[in-house]
Here is the input.
Amino acid sequence: MKILYTLLVSVFISTLSLGQTQKPQDFLSSDFHQERREILRNKMPENSVAVFFSNPIRNRANDVNYKYHQDPNFYYLTGHRQPHALLMIFSEEQNIKGSTFNEIVFVRGRNALAELYDGGRISTADAVKDLKLEVAFETPEFKNFPIDFSKFDQVLFHDFQDDVRESREEGDLYDLISQFKQKVNYPDDSKLDITPEPQKNNLNTTLLDELLRPMRGIKTEEELDLLRKAVKISALGQAEVMRAMQPGMSELEVQGMHEFIYKKYKAEYEGYPSIVGAGHNGCVLHYIDNYKPEIEDGELILMDLGAEYHGYTADVTRTIPVNGKFTKEQKAIYDLVYEAQEAGMAVAKAGVPFSNIFDTTLAVINKGLLELGIVKSLNEEDLIDPATGRHRYYPHGCCHHIGLDVHDLGEYGTLEENMVITIEPGIYIPEGSPCDEKWWDIPVRIEDDYLIKKDGIELLSDDAPRKSSEIEELMKQESAFGQFNFPELEEK
Here is the structure.
């Protein structure tokens, strides 16, 4: 009976593996990941090894986990999207266990019963073939793998955050990290000193980001194809929700419409927790509860969302009047933020300091706030909130890289060709602000995604209108969501 059961499970897994061949064909190519590894290897110091761990599985509650999401650097260098894995890249060829190689990956061991529940796992043979990695082993083999880390001048890795759970699986991420710590004589009593000063031993937890930052910040054509798709999907979501928006909707309903469109266009994830804040909630910069049960007529709603497509995320924000028409005060603030964004766009091009964009948008916003009488002067006491130390009405930065992370790795000194960045000025006037009450609870952020070019920028998110007049015009149109007719829940 046991033999029959094992046979049936094996047959099921074989069938499952066949079904999994039907997957999108526009992921990054294995050649892309192989090239990234080679570029990193050429940047590494002599006689060094770079060690990368996959992301941990995140527990939701009890025996239920969140959908798995790979560590961006691990994905960038391998294309591997499964948990419990370790990658090593060597600056020079190594000869271990009779093989010569300059990179090695450890992947999760095959397990027919586990794969019955959770899906197929990549084999070591497929890791070599499909990921184009030179050598692959199963993770339980790392424990006794004969590598002497003390012979390297530098062992490069990101320091640990102590957020990995131990499971019953041999060779899981918890085991890999524990075994690595033993092999490199990782300090037990405290975290490593992560200041730029050289380590007393050969462990270096800061250099990897320095090496990866310029690589991740400049996008290849393959990456741009995926980013364009992620941005377009996100902008189409914003436009459709503008058509569908009605007073009385909940913030969750609005969030759901955006995310339905993401799934409709086969985006696997949201790039970050969706921000949908109406009225005062829009003044909370990273408001993610999205739980207001009924959005009120006359309010603005700030919608900061981005689809993640094959690992690459957009970041698009629109602020619109729930009833389709800006009030006089809302329009004045909205148009001021729009003017600031346009000014920021005008100075952005390769060779310009990042800081120029923020400085430009800040100058426009300060001038406009003074002209509207919202601030009495441009002196620090009128502009800076003493409780936060930030600008009272424009408290955040203006630009960041997007890519495999919504706040992607990249250099922030000078803009370079093929960087993809946001420009996102905003004004937030919460209730109780030291200005006329007519301005209270007006939050406006306009955020778009741009490709930096030699002589300017390309606006990638123009499928969602930005001008106040264009938003009002689009909101008059019918939405596909208007065809949905759901039954009411009975109140008890």
